[in-house]
Amino acid sequence: MSYRDRTQVNIARLAGLFAGRRSRDRRKTRWRRLSLTAISAFTLLCGAATFPDATRASESNRLMEIGVIQRFGSKETRDLIVKPLAGNTLYLRFEGGDGNPKTLEAEQVKIELENQPLPQPQIEERVVLSIHRSFENAEQSAQEWQQQGIEVELASPGGRWQVWAKRDVYNTPLLRRLLLQSLQTNGHELTFLNTEVNKSIPHLSWTLDGFRYHRRFLEISASNDRIQVARGEKDPEPRLYGGELRLQPDAYGTYTLVNEVPLESYLRGVVPHEIGAGAPDAAVEAQAILARTYALRNLRRFETDGYELCASSACQVYKGLGNTWEPADRAIAATAGKVLTYNNELVDALYSSTSGGVTSPYTDMWDGNDRPYLQTRLDAVTNIWDLGRNSLSDEQNFRRFIGLKQGFNEDKTDLFRWREESKLADMNKDLKDYLQSKNHPLRNFKTIREAQVVKRSPSGRAIELTVTTDLGSVTLRKDEILQGFYAPLSTLFYLEPMYDKDKKLEGYAFIGGGFGHGVGLSQYGSHNLARLGWTSDRILTFYFPGTEVRPIDREIVFWQDPQGGREEKF
User: Fold this and answer.
1) Ordered DSSP codes for 12-72
2) In whole angstroms, what is the distance from residue 488 CA to residue 251 CA?
3) Please, are residues 143 and 562 in contact by the beta-carbon 8 Å criterion?
4) What is the C-alpha to C-alpha distance for residues 71 and 305, in angstroms, rounded to an integer?
5) How are beta strands 472-477 and 493-499 bridged, if at all?
6) N or C: less crowded end of the chain, CB within 10 Å?
C-alpha cells in the first residue's frame, strides 16, 4: 500500500471509529478469540550477542499500537514538542484542504489543542453501567451485562475503567433513558447517565512556514524511525520513540498520542523498566517472555479509543527507546518470539513487584474464572510454611505468617513486610472519593466508625473489607479495596485500630506484605531464583505451574472469549 493510500485509509478508519460508526464486522468481533497469523517465530540463531532487527515489522514481529500519552489536552498536558534526532527529517501527514493526503517536512513542530466553537451546543451522553479499578473486573462486568442482552463497550476516562452501554446501539436520548429506567427498576441502582454539553470541539493545531493548521488527525514519522517527544518546553525527560506516531481523538474529548512500533522494539522500552537494573540474566529473560505474552494477550484493552495498550503500570511500563539497557536487549534477543502458553493459549501473564511470600489465584483479586496455572503457592524454595495444614484464610494463621520475615524469595526487600498507618481523616477522604466515583448512595457519609476484614482467601488476601460509616455499611471486594483506601500496598494485610488518649478511634494500621496484586510472577522473587541458578523457563514454571514456553506459531490462541463460539484472527 502506498504512503498516500495508507494515509487515506487511516483517516477514514479513525474518522469512522470516533463518529461511532464501526463496521458491521468490527461490531461482530467485540469479544472474540484472538489467534496468531505469524508464519514463524524469530530464529534464535542470531544469538544473544546480536540483537534482531526489532525496528522492522514482520508477521511474527507485529506492529503494536501503544497509547504513550493519554488524554492529551487535559490540564496535565497542553502542548507537545516533536522533533527527529539530529540530521534527520520529520514528516507530518494529514488530510489536506482538498480532502487528499498531505505531507509536510519539518525540523521540529509544536502541537497544541485549540477549541473550535460549534455552531450550536452538542449534548454527549453515555449510560454508565459500572465503574472499576481494573480492566479485569471491568471486562468481567461487561460480559455479565452482555449475558443480559445489553451491548457494551469498555472505556477508561480519568484512569478508572467504566462499562458503557454501547453508544452506537443506544444512540438516541429516548433509548438511553428507557435503558436506564429499566435497569434502575430492576435493582441496578449504581447505573447512571453521564451528560456533557459541548460548546466547542478540540482540534490539533500547529504552525509551519507561517501557516496555521487545524486538524483532528495527524500522523508523524521520521527519516530514521526515531522521534523525540516532550510535554512542553520544560519537560525534564523527553521520550524517544521508534516507529511512527499518530495523534487521534479519544472518547472523552481529548486526544491520544499513539506509537506504532514493532513488538520486539516495544519490549526494549518495557523490560528494563519492569524488571529493574541489577536483575540477573535469567530473571530478565523471564520478564521478556512475560512482557511479550502480556502484550499479545491484551490487544483488546483500548479498542474503544482505537489503540491497543497504554504505556503506564496499568498495562506495562513503556518508556520508548531513550533508556534501553544492554542486558535487557540480550534477554529479548535470546527469547525472541517466545511466549508462555497453557493448553495452546497465551497465559494471563500477570506479574507484580512482590508477592509478600505467597502467590494468589486470579479470583483472589478479580472476578471471573480462575486460571489453572495461577495458584496459591509459597514464594520460597524451602517449605517454611505448610499451606495445606495452616490455611491463611484463618486470621490467626495469617497474622503468624505475616510475622515471618526470613526464608522467602523476597525477604531482603523493603516491600516484603510493611506497616502503613492511616489517620481517620485520610481514610474518610479516600473512601468518599471512591464512593463518589461510583455514584454510591453512601457517598455523603461523614465518618468511618469501623473497618474489618470479614473474608480472607486461602492465600491470605483480603477478599472482603466491610466499612461501617455513620450512614451505613459498605463492603469493598478484592482489588477495589486498594481503590477505596490509599494506605495498603497490597491486599495481603490485617488491620489494627489506632486510638487516641481518650480511647477514641483515630485511624488504622495496615500491617502486611508484598506490593501489587501478588498474582503470577514476583519480580523480586525471580531475582532470587535466578541467583540460585534457575533458568528463565524454570522460574516461569514455578510461578505458572503446568505452562510451557514455546515459540509463537499459527496454532496459539491469544485470547479466548469466555462466552466461546467466536474467533478473531490476525
Assistant:
1) HHHHHHHTT---HHHHHTTT-EEE---S-PPPGGG-TTS---TTS--SSSPEEEEEEEEEE
2) 32
3) yes
4) 11
5) unpaired
6) N
Residues 549, 489: Cα–Cα separation, whole Å: 31
* Of 6, 570, 1, residue with least CA distance to 246: 6
Asked if 493 and 510 touch (Cβ cutoff 8 Å), the reply is: yes
The H helix count followed by the E strand count for the chain is 13, 31
CA-to-CA distance for 430 and 188, rounded, in angstroms?
24
Contact between 479 and 499 (Cβ < 8 Å): no
The residues near 175 (Cβ < 8 Å, ≥ 6 apart) are 169
Q: What is the dihedral of CA 9, 12, 17, 20, to 10 degrees?
A: -150
What is the CA 404 to chain-centroid distance, rounded?
A: 32
Cβ partners under 8 Å of residue 319, min gap 6: 239, 269, 273, 311
Least confident among 233-237, 301-305, 312-316, 379-383: 233-237
Residues, the chain: 570
Residue 289 grid cell: 517472555
* CA-closest candidate to residue 550, choices 342, 374, 372: 342
Helix (H, G, I), strand (E, B) or coil at 117: strand
Provide the 10 A C-beta neighbour count for residue 439: 14
Residues contacting 144, CB < 8 A, separation 6+: none
Own/partner pairs for 75-80, CB < 8 Å, 24+ apart?
Answer: 77/231, 77/232, 78/112, 78/113, 78/232, 79/110, 79/111, 79/112, 79/113, 79/231, 79/232, 80/110, 80/111, 80/229, 80/230, 80/231, 80/232, 80/257
Q: Quick one: pLDDT at residue 11?
A: 42
Pairing of strands 567-569, 33-35: parallel
Give the bridge partners for 341, in sequence order. Answer: 346, 548
Q: Is 272 helix (H, G, I), strand (E, B) or coil?
A: helix
- Cα-based angle 95, 96, 98 (whole degrees, multiple of 5): 120
- What cell does 530 get? 535466578
Position 56 scores a pLDDT of: 62
What are the DSSP calls for 381-419, one per residue? SS--S-TTTS-TTSHHHHHHHHT--SSSTTTTSTTSSEE
Of 471, 482, 469, 478, which Cα lies nearest the Cα of 434? 482
**Is the predicted pLDDT of residue 410 greater than 80, yes or no?**
yes
CA angle, 496 then 433 then 498, to 5°:
15
pLDDT in tens, 98-138: 999 999 999 999 999 999 999 999 999 999 999 999 999 99
SS3 assignment, position 477: strand
Burial class (CB in 10 A: 0-12, 13-18, 19+), 529: buried
Query: Reduced to 3 states, what is the DSSP secondary structure of residue 265?
Result: helix
Beta bridge partners of 194: 126
Region class of 73: left (phi > 0), else alpha (psi between -120 and 50), else beta: left
Asked whether the whole model's pTM tops 0.85, one would answer yes
